[in-house]
């Protein structure tokens, strides 16, 4: 990582001053004013352009090509993609520095350690014109919790509608992280529950006005999502006439669509296309460093990953630096910590390449090299199947690089592509798989720890279990003291080093490739929330 990249990563991983969003965040200045320039939630927006194109021309539509399909508009099924394209909003939003800022809520203030008072922006409206009031927000949060969103302090919490603009929650346990949870696009997009009946026909939701962002879905097919601008959007009219999202799973087809002008912006750019993108006149590659680590998810229910020495050896045998810089053309970074090194609790050396150490671990555990170099123990070869998936095209060359490195240590790795890796993980019928995820969402490390790494976590799809780590996570959930939190989060990382519930590959840079008309576009700091905002627009003079 260059010094400039490290500086950018440092800015975006700094947490909210005063203890991860516990201070009252009110709209004071451009960052806090929903309609102000500079208030766009993230790096995806450009503040150039205007409500209309230069010379009085009509605003332009943005055409996007992506590998991930939006299957429906049900808030519980695809909420992160609804936020991605400017349809859904949350109570708080996350700025590129990982700082919380007001959005639908003007403030979320702690009531000691008993709970929080949520003040809503009186201007906030759903697309159907209804005010986003306290009763609507309570109903929405309760719907999300009922569908399985995990926030320990809200299980059995007591709610009070103080007035139309004020909602108070008494949590079941102290929770220093609640404002961060409520800013998570995949967990708590705010919608009008009255317009989204339980068990209703998903196709009937297209065109309904239950969200509140600058764009609204007008059509959805198997191949495309069509979004139109909401001119009277409560926090400002968008600068685009609309957004057309084409679902193009094949990375080459997506790149060809960009070259031929069928799309303006390509998401999930394959790293092997970078040299050609940079060499093609009229195309531009944009990338933003992130804290997103690519996981190697392990199934502890199956051999060989039911054996800790094998997991430790696997982690030590992966040389991440050449994968990031050579195999993936510098589109990724190589961290040596579970968390970005700028965070106070980041422990260096948790992710460490040690080829000789990997071999010794296997030797000591009784895994001996066979005639072909693959290790054998009790008549069984040290082999496993490693899954990758086409929606993240870099997962294949990443898997191939790890396959070669692990073979040198004595592993027999068989690569397999699956179309829906999420479904395979949920089935628990796998050995290992590449997974793009983050150890910290919305400035909050507890979301992932609770969702994926407790023994009883709904997302613990690898069968990992540790009573000691469970107890540590429970303490962190209620710990308000910043120094104690830092110490406990360092202890968490010791479990990742020692027990290896999962291991990691490289750190993703969120990227996009764009045509000349969007040469000022800045890649989002979060592809699951802020790819398109109200301020996204063509570069000056390039509206057509």
* Residues in β-strands, percent: 15-25%
- Label the overall shape: globular
* Helical/strand content category: alpha+beta
Question: Helix fraction?
Answer: 10-25%
Tally of individual helices: 14
Low-confidence stretches: 1-56
Most strands sheet: 11 strands, mixed
How big is the Rg?
23 Å
Number of strands: 20
> What is the first-to-last residue Cα distance?
37 Å
Give the rounded overall mean pLDDT: 88
List keywords for this structure.
544 residues, alpha+beta, globular, four-stranded antiparallel beta sheet
Question: Quick summary of this structure?
Answer:
By secondary structure, this protein is α+β, with helices and mostly antiparallel strands. The chain has helices spanning 3-13, 79-84, 134-146, 178-181, 251-259, 274-279, 308-317, 320-327, 355-364, 395-409, 421-427, 446-452, 467-477, 482-498, and strands at residues 61-66, 92-94, 100-102, 105-110, 115-120, 158-163, 166-170, 215-220, 224-229, 242-247, 265-267, 283-298, 332-333, 368-369, 375-377, 380-381, 383-388, 412-417, 432-438, 502-515.
What does this structure look like?
- With 544 residues, the protein is α+β, with helices and mostly antiparallel strands.
- It has 14 helices and 20 strands.
- It has helices spanning 3-13, 79-84, 134-146, 178-181, 251-259, 274-279, 308-317, 320-327, 355-364, 395-409, 421-427, 446-452, 467-477, 482-498; strands spanning 61-66, 92-94, 100-102, 105-110, 115-120, 158-163, 166-170, 215-220, 224-229, 242-247, 265-267, 283-298, 332-333, 368-369, 375-377, 380-381, 383-388, 412-417, 432-438, 502-515.
- The strands form four sheets. Strands 1, 8, 9, 10, 11, 12, 13, 17, 18, 19 and 20 form an eleven-stranded mixed beta sheet that branches. A four-stranded antiparallel beta sheet has the order 4-5-7-6, covered by helices on one side. Strands 14-15-16 form a three-stranded antiparallel beta sheet, with no helix packed on it.
- The chain is globular, with a radius of gyration of 23 Å.
């Amino acid at each position: 990582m260059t010094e400039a990249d490290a500086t950018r990563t440092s800015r975006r991983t700094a947490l909210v001053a005063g203890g991860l969003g516990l201070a009252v965040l009110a709209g004071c200045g451009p960052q806090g004013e929903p309609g102000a320039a500079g208030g766009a939630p993230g790096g995806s927006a450009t503040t150039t352009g205007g409500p209309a194109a230069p010379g009085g021309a009509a605003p332009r539509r943005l055409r996007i090509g992506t590998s991930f399909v939006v299957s429906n508009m049900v808030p519980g099924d695809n909420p992160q993609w609804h936020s991605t394209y400017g349809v859904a909003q949350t109570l708080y939003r996350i700025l590129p520095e990982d700082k919380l800022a007001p959005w639908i809520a003007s403030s979320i203030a702690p009531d000691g350690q008993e709970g929080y008072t949520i003040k809503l922006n009186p201007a906030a409206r759903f697309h159907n014109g209804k005010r986003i009031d306290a009763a609507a927000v309570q109903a929405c949060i309760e719907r999300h919790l009922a569908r399985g969103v995990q926030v320990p302090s809200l299980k059995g919490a007591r709610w009070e509608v103080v007035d139309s603009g004020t909602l108070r929650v008494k949590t079941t346990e102290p929770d220093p992280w609640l404002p961060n949870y409520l800013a998570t696009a995949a967990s708590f997009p705010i919608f009008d529950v009255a317009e989204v009946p339980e068990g209703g026909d998903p196709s009937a939701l297209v065109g309904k006005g239950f969200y509140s962002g600058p764009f609204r879905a007008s059509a959805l097919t198997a191949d495309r999502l069509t979004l139109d601008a909401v001119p009277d959007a409560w926090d400002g009219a968008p600068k685009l006439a609309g957004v057309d999202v084409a679902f193009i799973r094949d990375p080459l087809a997506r790149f060809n669509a960009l070259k031929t002008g069928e799309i303006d912006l390509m998401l999930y750019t394959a790293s092997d296309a970078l040299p050609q993108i940079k060499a093609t006149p009229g195309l531009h590659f944009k990338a933003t460093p992130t804290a997103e680590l690519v996981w190697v998810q392990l199934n502890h229910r199956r051999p060989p990953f039911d054996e800790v020495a094998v997991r430790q050896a696997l982690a030590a045998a992966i040389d991440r630096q050449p994968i990031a810089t050579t195999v993936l053309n510098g589109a990724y970074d190589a961290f040596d910590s579970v968390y970005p090194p700028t965070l106070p609790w980041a422990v260096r050396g948790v992710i460490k390449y040690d080829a000789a150490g990997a071999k010794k671990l296997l030797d000591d555990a009784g895994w001996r090299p066979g005639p072909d170099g693959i290790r054998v123990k009790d008549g069984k070869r040290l082999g496993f199947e490693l899954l990758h998936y086409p929606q993240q095209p870099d997962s294949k060359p990443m898997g191939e690089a790890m396959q070669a490195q692990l073979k040198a240590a004595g592993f027999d790795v068989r690569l397999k592509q699956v179309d829906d890796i999420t479904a395979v993980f949920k089935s628990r019928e796998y050995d290992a798989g590449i997974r793009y995820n983050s150890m910290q969402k919305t400035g909050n490390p507890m979301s992932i720890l609770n969702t994926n790494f407790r023994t009883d976590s709904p997302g613990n799809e690898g069968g990992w279990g540790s009573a000691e780590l469970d107890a540590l996570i429970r303490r962190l959930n209620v710990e308000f003291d910043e120094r104690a939190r830092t110490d406990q989060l360092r202890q968490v990382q010791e479990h990742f080093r020692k027990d290896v519930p999962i291991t990691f590959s490289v750190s993703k840079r969120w990227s996009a490739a764009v045509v000349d008309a969007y040469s000022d576009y800045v890649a989002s700091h979060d592809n699951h929330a802020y790819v398109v905002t109200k301020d996204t627009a063509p570069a000056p003079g390039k509206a057509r």
